[in-house]
Write a structure and sequence with these properties.
Layout: E1 2-7, E2 10-13, E3 18-26, E4 33-39, E5 46-52, E6 57-60, E7 68-73, E8 78-83, E9 92-99, E10 116-117, E11 121-126
Parallel strand pairs: 2-11
Antiparallel strand pairs: 1-3, 3-8, 4-5, 4-9, 5-6, 7-8, 9-10, 9-11
């Protein structure tokens, strides 16, 4: 069992920055991947970024590539999402998720590959 809690959301002007944090507890040593997803009102939950194992590799959605950076501090069991050059279309509820096992048929960009989810943190970008 893994428990994740997000923090760091808020209101920011377009062009600004925010850093989201995801604190994990429980059986974190066996976690295969940690991911960030987001969901805007009336839209599907979409992939934002993922970090595999202990930062062995990272993945990003095209819409955030070059602006967002995912990282992890293993000593603190925390994953971060640094978001720069924010745009109004980045406005959404941001979720952190943990994948406990490798699922060869499900990519780390797929929300169905994740077992544990936080409650989300709201990010609002004003124009």
């Amino acid at each position: 069992q893994v428990h994740v809690v997000e923090s760091g959301g808020g209101l920011v002007q377009a062009g600004g920055s925010l850093r989201l944090s995801c604190a994990a507890s429980g059986r974190t040593s066996s976690t295969y991947a940690m991911g960030w997803f987001r969901q805007a009102p009336g839209k599907e939950r979409e992939f934002v970024a993922a970090i595999i194992r202990s930062g062995l590799s990272t993945l990003y959605a095209d819409s955030v590539k070059g602006r967002f950076t995912i990282s992890r501090d293993n000593a603190k069991n925390t994953v971060y999402l640094q978001m720069n050059s924010l745009k109004p279309e980045d406005t959404a509820l941001y979720y952190c998720a943990a994948a406990s096992v490798v699922r060869p048929s499900i990519a780390p960009t797929n929300k169905y590959g994740y077992d544990y989810w936080g409650q989300g943190t709201q990010v609002t970008v004003s124009s």
